[in-house]
Automatic annotation (TrEMBL):
It comes from Cognatiyoonia sediminum. Residues 1-20 form the signal peptide. This is Porin. The lineage of its organism: Bacteria, Pseudomonadati, Pseudomonadota, Alphaproteobacteria, Rhodobacterales. The keyword Signal applies. GO terms for cellular component: membrane.
Length: 358
């Protein structure tokens, strides 16, 4: 994630310009704010606020230009200098687009793999920006005959990225489309520096009510370890209010992995249970999480995760107009400072929090 510093004066000037030119180029604002107290957090109280800005303009020849970025208004302080981040600009039209800025490389973001595929380790944003030293991503996309093809490169405006010295490097490709009842997915990453060449292909379909995905990936030796190939299959099937699922992945050069799951949804009750095994000693884990919609905007949640080493209980009350009140208690035996416990990612300890979306 790239960030730049804006002064309060610059922010006010931008807001005025946006208001004055709003009739020509629509600009939308969305944001959120959070205020909470946690008995295990340093200082107890925590708060933050952010604002997302998107501007769109219609160009000649049916083209549309879109620019967006985020503003971190406050994070444990009462404001001041504002950090701008996640800037992107896109030109689109005729089923094609070109995006420049803080966005994901296409193979890592989009490849439809199967859980446990150890060969699938495409470079992500952190590796591109923090390790390779790229300043932005350049992504092109085009849709033809029901297939969408995307290509991405890292871009460095200085002397070149930190791994190879090239100013444009680290190509990834992703292609997705439907063919004869199958959804086909293809992804490729070129080698650059110590990061390996990876390619993968998968196919998904529905058969007799079951959703099935079969995938294959091959990774050369490199920064992520020795050469490895992965072949995986996943199946999910609804049985009344329960959807059962499972996957099995063979990793030639690694360990085989498998897992099973069951998701129950019936009226106000939702329960999810999962078991996974990565093939190593002590590598199995299980979790059970559920929620109950009491009514009047109140939902009660509870979960036992990380094979019983962590748990949480919580209540979330919808206050209307994008506001939510959260009361939770969570505990993690292996990491007392954990702030991502369970699927809701609750803070360890007792928490009372109010959040607003606007």
């Amino acid at each position: 994630m790239k960030s730049i510093l804006l002064t309060s004066t610059a922010l006010v000037a931008f807001a005025g310009a946006a208001s004055a030119g709003g009739h020509a180029s629509p600009i939308s604002f969305t944001g959120e704010a959070t205020l909470g107290y946690n008995d295990e957090a340093q200082g107890g109280f925590y708060w933050d606020s952010s604002l997302d800005v998107t501007g769109t303009a219609g160009l000649d020849n049916g083209l549309t230009a879109t620019a967006s970025f985020g503003l971190d208004i406050a994070d444990g302080n009462l404001g001041g200098d504002v950090m701008a981040s996640d800037f992107t600009v896109t030109i689109a039209g005729g089923g094609a687009s070109l995006t420049f800025g803080d966005t994901d490389p296409v193979a890592e973001a989009n490849f439809a793999d199967v859980s446990g595929m150890q060969a699938v380790s495409f470079n992500d944003q952190d590796r591109h920006f923090d390790v390779a030293g790229f300043e932005a991503m350049l992504v092109g996309s085009a849709t033809v005959a029901g297939f969408t093809a995307q290509i991405s490169y890292g871009v460095d405006n200085g002397a070149g990225n930190d791994l190879t010295g090239e100013q444009i490097d680290a190509m990834q490709i992703h292609v997705n489309g439907a063919l004869s009842g199958f959804t086909i997915d293809f992804a490729y990453q070129e080698e650059f520096g110590p990061t390996p060449t990876i390619f993968g292909i998968s196919g998904s379909t529905s058969l007799g009510g079951a959703d099935i995905t079969i995938a294959y990936a091959d990774r050369d030796a490199g920064i992520d370890g020795p050469a490895i190939t992965s072949t995986g299959i996943s199946v999910s099937y609804p049985v009344g209010p329960v959807t059962v699922g499972g996957y099995y992945t063979m990793n030639d050069g690694g360990t085989d992995e498998f897992g099973v799951s069951a998701d129950y949804v019936n009226g106000p009750i939702s329960v999810s249970a999962a078991y996974d095994d990565d093939g190593t000693d002590g590598g199995d884990s299980f979790s059970v999480e559920g929620s109950y919609d009491v009514g009047n905007g109140l939902t009660v949640l509870a979960g036992l995760v990380d094979s019983g080493d962590a748990y949480y209980v919580a209540g979330e009350l919808d206050l209307g107009s994008g506001a939510t009140l959260l009361v939770s208690y969570a505990d993690d035996d292996n990491n007392g400072a954990n702030d991502e416990i369970g699927d809701p990612e609750y803070n360890a300890g007792a928490t009372v929090e109010v959040s607003f979306s606007f």
